[in-house]
Write a structure and sequence with these properties.
Blueprint (H helix, E strand, L loop, with lengths): L3 E5 L6 H11 L2 E7 L2 H10 L3 E5 L5 H15 L4 E4 L14 H29 L2 E7 L14 H18 L4 E8 L2 E2 L2 H6 L8 E2 L1 H12 L9 E4 L7
Parallel strand pairs: 1-2, 1-4, 2-3, 4-5, 5-6, 6-9, 7-8
């Protein structure tokens, strides 16, 4: 039997796909959002209870239309995981301002619109979970992260504001920061000299998200930071 509806944005080959599999295996109907329709169709064919919804979450109109479709097709969401991310590397003189603005739409405004769409039904139900995935750029601004860190910091603060507003209404809002290189083919190629222990496994990250979504309300966590045991932090 279905445990409800889970929406996952940013469904790529790593964390996003692992989140879809974990929540589908756990009995949820999963709505998958990403810009790549082909990737979503392939994953849907491999994952019962997962449905593809191609969408650019940085496009407000497109996102709202997609969320309305999900509600019509699957019903109200009981879990939302905003995993989509926009990033760019360079200092403040190198970054194209338009890139920073787009990253803000993906990382911050999309969370804003997603939360506004799913929160009313969660409030009516008296329960639900909203999780945003991030990284340590949400806590510090390194020189070459000027096109990325400001948006992740704003995303985390928005999530904290949501948590303070929605927590007393029974909705658990949390920020899951991944301080690691995630184990996907392109990172394995880029860091070919690194041992297995250097990488964070997407399935393990998904398990943490599952645990957060199912925490007892007497011990809700907001900030959760995960990293490989050998990470230098």
């Amino acid at each position: 039997m279905s445990k409800g509806v889970c929406i996952v944005t940013g469904v790529g080959p790593g964390t996003g796909a692992a989140l879809v599999r974990r929540f589908a295996e756990g009995g949820f109907k999963v709505a998958m959002l990403a810009r790549s329709a082909d990737r979503l169709t392939e994953l849907a064919a491999q994952t019962p209870n997962a449905r593809p919804y191609p969408c650019d979450v940085a496009d407000e109109a497109q996102l709202k239309t997609t969320l309305a479709r999900i509600a019509d097709d699957l019903g109200p969401a009981s879990v939302l995981i905003h995993n989509a991310v926009g990033g760019a590397f360079g200092d403040f003189m190198q970054i194209d301002p338009a890139v920073l603005e787009r990253n803000f739409k993906t990382n911050v405004m999309a969370l804003f619109h997603l939360a506004r769409a799913v929160a009313p039904a969660m409030i009516d139900a008296g329960q639900g979970a909203i999780i945003a995935t991030g990284n340590t750029s949400a806590y510090r601004g390194k020189a070459n992260f000027a096109g990325f860190a400001p948006t992740k910091a704003a995303q985390r603060i928005l999530a904290e504001s949501l948590a303070r507003s929605l927590g007393p209404k029974g909705i658990h809002v949390a920020y899951l920061a991944i301080d690691a290189v995630i184990d996907v083919p392109w990172t394995r190629k880029q860091y070919a000299d690194k041992p297995d222990d250097y990488f964070a496994k997407p399935a393990a990250i998904a398990n943490v998200a599952w645990d957060i979504a199912h925490q007892d309300r007497s011990t809700w966590a907001f900030d959760t930071v995960v990293r490989p045991f050998g990470e230098n932090w």
